[in-house]
Amino acid sequence: MDKLITELSPPRRILMGPGPSNCHPRVLKAMATPLIGHLDPEFLEIMNDTQELLRRVFKTENQLTIPISGTGSSGMEATICNLVEEGDDVIVCVNGTFGARMVDIAERNRARVIRVDEKWGRAIPPEKVAEALKSRKVKLVAIVHAETSTGVYQQLEEIGCLAREHGALFLVDAVTSLGGCPVEVDKWGIDACYSATQKCLSAPPGLAPVTFSPRALEMIENRKTRVPSWYLDMTLVKKYWGKERVYHHTAPISMIYALREALRIILEEGLKARFARHELNHRALAAGLEAMGIDYLPPRGERLWMLNSIMIPAGVDDNKVRSQLLDNYSMEIGGGLGEFKGKVWRVGLMGESSTQANIILFLSALEEILNGEGYPVEVGAAIQAASDIYNSE
Ligand SMILES: *Cc1c(COP(=O)(O)O)cnc(C)c1O
Fold first, then answer.
1. Ligand 1 binding pocket includes 175 (Cβ within 6 Å)
2. Every domain range in the chain assigned CATH 3.90.1150.10
3. Cα-to-centroid distance, 380 and ligand 1 (Å)
4. CB of 176 closer than 6 A to ligand 1?
5. 153 lines ligand 1 (CB under 6 A)
6. What's the chain's Rg over C-alpha atoms?
7. Atom 12 in ligand 1: which residue has the minimum CA distance?
8. How far is the CA of 39 from the centre of ligand 1 (A)?
9. CB 60 within 8 A of CB 239
């Protein structure tokens, strides 16, 4: 039979990389429900529901809270290209791939970027941002909450306060954090925030939830120049999602179904319980890894629950281990990026993928593979250490 016309049958994978994470079957089912028109009154209801559900997950009252049609990077692009005009001074914090991507996008929008750099694998110290704010009047401070490239958690409250005291807007990348650990848009004074569906929200990739504060929206409405991107111009997109329902583009209907269902699942579990689950599973994984003598890239206190960036033991071949995990256990984990290629593994515990069963399977698979690769580990020690964490709960 012609391979091109055989039925699609991808393998079943346990997705423990930097995204996508596994989807709940209810999300996949929602995607298979019938299409209706995007201006059908029934669909308008679904759009409203989705916005309200997003507000609850972002912890915000912001009217302008919508999913952008595009992946997480489109959320990054949408927030920056709407808030930044030619010649604006903006601070971008860089301690990994995604901070660097923000710089690229801000520069393409002709901002004058003041970089606040920190060693990759470490959080940005607020003092560095305070120092940069002294140099000149800036319009915006941008930062990544959960740096997926290095597994670093960034505290936001202090930097948000500094931005506000200075009269600057505060832009946060919550692509990997939203749905996995607290993200408090209103309480932390965040003016613009974006995420993506395929990380801790556990829906397929394809939408970028974004939210803009009234202050940010006012700034957009008073721009001197038009937003350079037509597709991402929030003054137009807002009218499509708002009361006017003016046609702008055709919302990806099945993806909106998926997001609505994924958000429902999140709120059924409860945000608090969901975050506690992510934390507990991270602690169990960390205990198991420690028992195997495997270290983390970021120091304690700067580690993400949902993305565990761990050091590959000396002499162990990155690709050989990852391909055995994939071939023999159907498990995907991520490799390192940039300077960490071949040095670091990125183990995602995002949304539906963050389960006790996945962790126990991963630890025992890794133990078996490492023993075969000439890195001897005591059999059973990792499982015991992880179980101790679960049993002490
Ligand atoms: C994944 C990710 C992005 C980019 O999202 P895409 O869906 O791949 O476009 C941006 N920022 C962070 C922190 C991410 O983890």
1. yes
2. 270-391
3. 35
4. yes
5. no
6. 22
7. 175
8. 29
9. no
| Whole-model pTM over 0.85 | yes
Q: Is there an atom of ligand 1 within 6 Å of 173 CB? A: yes
- For ligand 1, the distance from its centroid to the CA atom of residue 160, given in whole angstroms, is 21
130, 158 Cβ separation under 8 angstroms: no
Give me the tens of pLDDT residue by residue for the chain, a chain 393 residues long: 788 899 999 999 999 999 999 999 999 999 999 999 999 999 999 999 999 999 999 999 999 999 999 999 999 999 999 999 999 999 999 999 999 999 999 999 999 999 999 999 999 999 999 999 998 899 999 999 999 999 999 999 999 999 999 999 999 999 999 999 999 999 999 999 999 999 999 999 999 999 999 999 999 999 999 999 999 999 999 999 999 999 999 999 999 999 999 999 999 999 999 999 999 999 999 999 999 999 999 999 999 999 999 999 999 999 999 999 999 999 999 999 999 999 999 999 999 999 999 999 999 999 999 999 999 999 999 999 999 999 998
Q: Name which residue sits closest to atom 14 of ligand 1, judged by CA.
A: 175
CA angle, residues 100, 91, 133, in degrees to nearest 5: 145
Give the atom of ligand 1 at the shortest distance from the alpha carbon of 144.
Answer: 13
| Alpha carbon 341 to its chain's center | 20
Residues of the chain with CATH 3.40.640.10: 25-268
Ligand 1 binding pocket includes 148 (Cβ within 6 Å): yes
Q: Cα(first)–Cα(last) distance of the chain, in Å?
A: 54
Q: For residue 148, give the ligand 1 atom closest to its CA.
A: 15
Task: Give the whole-angstrom CA distance, residue 204 versus residue 252.
Answer: 12
CATH of domain 270-391: 3.90.1150.10
- Reply yes or no on domain 25-268 having CATH 3.40.640.10: yes
Among the atoms of ligand 1, which is closest to the Cα of residue 74?
9
Name residues whose C-beta falls within 8 Å of residue 115's C-beta, 6 or more positions apart in sequence. Answer: 91, 92, 93, 94, 103
Ligand 1 binding pocket includes 304 (Cβ within 6 Å): no
Structure tokens at 65: 């809270």
Residue nearest to atom 8 of ligand 1 (CA): 72
CA distance 273 to 269: 6
